[in-house]
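Good morning C.,

I know you're traveling, so I'll keep this short. The sequence:
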Amino acid sequence: MIDGPRSVSYEGFAGLVETAAASLRGRGLQPGDAVAVAAGNSLELAVLLLACARARLVMVGLNTRLAPPQWEWMATYMQVRLRLAEPAHLLEGALDLASVLAEAPSRTWAYQVDQQPAEDETYAVVFTSGTTGRPKASQVVHRCSVHSAMSYQRVLQLQPGEVTAVLFGLYYISAMHAHVLPAFLAGATCLLVDTQSPRAYVDLLRRHRVSWAYAVPSWWRLCLRELDDLPALTRLAAGGATFPADLQAALRERLPGVALLDVYGLSETHSPGCIATDADLRTRPGSVGRPLPCMQAEVRGDDGAVLPAGEPGGLFLRGSLVTSGYARDPAATSAAVVDGWFDTGDIARIDSGGYVTILDRTKDMINRGGSKVFSAEVEQLLRQHPAIEDAAVVGVPDALAGEAVAAYLVTSAPVTVAEVRAWVRERLADHAAPKVVEFVDALPRNALGKTDKQALRSQAARS
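The tokens, ready to paste straight into the viewer:
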């Protein structure tokens, strides 16, 4: 594992984890106790996450892009027993992360089979985006993490000596499951990344000869101008939002020979649920692939009945990646997971070959006078316009139709409102054309880098 100028072998890393687990137990922490931490990607944060798993504690990772009052709410909600932070992050009542991890005498790895935790034991929580209210704390459990890591490795086929770049924060579900754990399985190298500069990030990919990289689509769009001379890069994935066709084309032009992947999943599925391979993206455009071998998917109508192939409806997933629930929220757990089936909150269709296409988030679908408008479909179309660089579509109140389509556009060349509406009308149903068109310098992003549609709805309500 590499963290800036520091590097450690997995044997050395295991020793650090054992020492840190002893240090945490030495503070009187008991199994099930929660430990909150505010820190950027670092060797210490990676050690803490595995040390919590080793000591049967629960790590509460705090997104460093959130504000201290949000951290305080999360820490209080989880009833944390210990607060840790790096000096750069002002978490009230926190002790220095590095100092606490090194309190016990240095140890080597001493795992015994009889110390194995229960498969469904929680060792961390990941807070959801919270776009519809307070975020929920999705439980991260051992069984699901093992299956997630194996699922990624089955697709990636990482080899010893390869390097994976961990851009996602280690408090985020995909950092551990798409990078760290598959690298453990393969004997590959993890490069911990802690930068928000596209140029610095691409320079790290180049300098460390990274072969596997994964980010949200908006990040890859920011990196486009920097992406060249990366001969070691063989696999590149996007996830967390729709992977637009125009971005795929631009990446293929900049990085010929690099296999693209589209990862669909949620915190509640320990990162993946479906993965579209490079071949899938070429032959089934718009699809996120088929469910992983350990997962099942079905689409249901409003009455709960399973719909036939090709019909749009609510997407449900079941399998060994689905969380055991939300911490301290049995009502939310029972509403989201019924008989093992998890309600993703997404609208999708599944074709006769089992390929899943995500149409929208349920809360983002627009009801235009009884006609359904899928915002993701309109966004995808708008981004194909030569003058439109990025787009976000939301529903806004409308006196006649209930909701109207509002489009917020980042442009690279002049384009008129009439041209935007005509572009949509000529390619989709008339009711999908935006009634409101706003040109903006940039789209708002939430703490995970996804488009903040709630902020756009609030903006529309004020105007």
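Safe travels,
E.
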